[in-house]
Write a structure and sequence with these properties.
single chain
């Protein structure tokens, strides 16, 4: 799911939590596995695993995850320690703190971006 490179543990391989297309959930989610949202969620999402927001998914939450793949709508600040990928249908409104960012053509991102894996310049 993340680009064309094969990862040893691709995102979404073992989805631990699914909020389906016809489901709306308000509250906090804490997980160690992958969370997939195809419905609506508002609150907080905290996972040491990955987050997938499907094309029909809408999230209004503070998000903390290892990786995130967004095809739907996210309103709220995100902290993604490794990779955040915005597919062409994604709409993200909020500040992001990420390791790596990929934005597909047509995706919308409105907010501030802080890339935390910046390599310091050699001043010699």
């Amino acid at each position: 799911m993340f680009g064309s490179k094969k990862a040893s543990s691709p995102i979404g391989d073992q989805v631990a939590t699914i909020i389906g297309n016809e489901t709306s959930f308000t509250g906090n989610i804490a997980s160690q596995g992958t969370i997939r949202i195809d419905g609506r969620h508002s609150g907080e999402i905290m996972t040491t695993g990955d987050l997938v927001v499907g094309e029909n998914g809408t999230v209004e939450a503070l998000v903390k995850a290892r990786n995130a793949l967004i095809a739907g709508v996210v309103k709220g600040n995100m902290e993604v320690s490794d990779k955040l990928e915005l597919l062409p249908t994604a709409k993200v409104y909020g500040d992001i703190k990420i390791g790596t960012l990929t934005i597909g053509e047509g995706a919308v991102f409105r907010g501030a971006c802080n890339m935390v894996n910046e390599v310091p310049e050699d001043n010699n």
